[in-house]
Amino acid sequence: MLKELAAGARMLLRGFGFWRRDAGVMLLGLVPAAIVFAALVWGLVALGIGLPGLVDWATPFADGWQEFWRSAFRALVTVVVFAGAAVLAFVTFTALTLIVGDPFYERIWKAVEADLGGEVPAEGPSFWSGVGNSLVLVVQGVLSAAVVAVAGFVPVVGGVLAAVLGAVLTGRLLARELAARAFDARHLDPRVRRALIRAHRWRFLGFGVATQLCFLVPLGAIATMPAAVAGATMLARSVLDEVHPVAADRA
């Protein structure tokens, strides 16, 4: 498990290393990431400013409590709601950036595929296929945010549990979405794709969590997105190359 987690994280490092191979195509990937990042940060800041008042308004039943318990409860609700919104923002960032920057990330995917060699699909997935995948990711992100929010209310360990659960759920979603282009381009049967991801779940999780941690660094989401697309292509290829004969026969 630990070996596979580390292997997944190294895929992201290899994605950053692709800047040395084709800096021009990677530079283009910063543009859509910057646009979407600015919009989501503005939304989170606005939520952070207005959330305390919103929580006070939504919890009138706590008005009669002792001040310590009232403040502690409302602070917990505020943290949990904001954490859920942050999880949703992480997933939404990836989905929206992939939609907005589809032509740019198509070029990164093709460049990485060509650099890796072997059988390279003539065309990637269609734009509308990418939109559909991104919308599915958003829905899954909403469900993950709800799960994280509920976990945050667990007594004593709620904060830690929500943080860990958020990292795992978000990392898993990020890895699957970012690697989808390489799978879609090969027209793999959904059952084959799920089997591949399930068989290498720890590698995908290592990549996804590493990507998410980079997103947490100030402006890290912008700098990481091109590398994440490149690294996810390498991740998908590493899985496909291991079981290529089987995957090709079943597709």
UniProtKB/TrEMBL annotation:
Upper taxonomic lineage: Bacteria, Bacillati, Actinomycetota, Actinomycetes, Micrococcales
Name this polypeptide is given: CysZ protein
Source taxon at top rank: Bacteria
Pfam hit, one: EI24
Swiss-Prot/TrEMBL keywords: Amino-acid biosynthesis, Cell inner membrane, Cell membrane, Membrane, Sulfate transport, Transmembrane, Transmembrane helix, Transport
Transmembrane intervals: 24-55, 75-100, 204-229
Membrane topology: Multi-pass membrane protein
Location(s) in or outside the cell: Membrane
